[in-house]
Amino acid sequence: MYRLLLKSCLVFLVVCISEACSSEQHENAATQNLSGEDKVRYEQYLVQGEDLYQARCANCHQVDGSGLRRLIPPLAHADYMLEDINRTLCLIRHGRQGKIIVNNIDYQQKMPANTRLTNIEVTQIANFIYNSWGNEHGFIRLQDASSALDSCQP
């Protein structure tokens, strides 16, 4: 808990300093129009999402989002993921069985459900994966992710 609080404070300081210097590490066209509060939240989600990703996702999808050969699909530049954020949010929460095609490659490996993740944790992971390894989606708000998660068909 202390570590998470410390990271959040550090993120806040980094964002404040970077705004003063007019350059942010993750700033792109989608985040340039965010309010100061949303920029801070976005940076917090990235940090917390990375921690969650490392703990729950990296073992299969790898630290760099490259996946595992033809067993586990990549998340870096993954057309399947980039096509539909709501589907990805539902997939994070409820897992998936059966074939999917990612970047023209068939994957059959089952993805386990993560039903114990809260809506904010799913949102944090989504912000991290949608804004890492060359993916540049921008901020995914908790209220938007929660709406998508509420409408998932498990």
Which key terms come to mind for this protein?
154 residues, mainly alpha, Cytochrome Bc1 Complex, Chain D, domain 2, two-stranded antiparallel ribbon, 2 strands
Helix-strand pattern = HHHHHEEHH
Overall number of structural domains = 1
Largest β-sheet summary? 2 strands, antiparallel
Residue ranges: pLDDT <50 for 5 or more in a row?
Answer: 13-26
Q: Measured on Cα atoms, how large is the radius of gyration?
A: 16 Å
- Name of the CATH class: Mainly Alpha
Report the strand count: 2
Q: How large a portion of the residues is in β-strands, by DSSP E?
A: under 5%
* General form: globular
What's the end-to-end separation, in Å? 31 Å
If classified by CATH, what would the architecture be? Orthogonal Bundle
CATH topology, anyone? Answer: Cytochrome Bc1 Complex, Chain D, domain 2
Structural class: mainly alpha
Number of separate helices: 7
Topology overview:
Layout: H1 2-21, H2 36-56, H3 58-61, H4 79-83, H5 85-94, E1 100-102, E2 105-107, H6 119-129, H7 142-150
Antiparallel strand pairs: 1-2
Helix pairs in contact: 1-2, 2-6, 6-7
Structural description of this entry:
- The chain is globular and about 40 Å long.
- It has 154 residues and is mainly alpha-helical.
- The chain starts with a helix and ends with a helix.
- It has a two-stranded antiparallel sheet.
- The chain has seven helices and two strands, in the order αααααββαα.
- α1 packs across α2.
- β1 and β2 form a beta hairpin.
- It has one domain (2-18, 34-150): Orthogonal Bundle (Cytochrome Bc1 Complex, Chain D, domain 2).
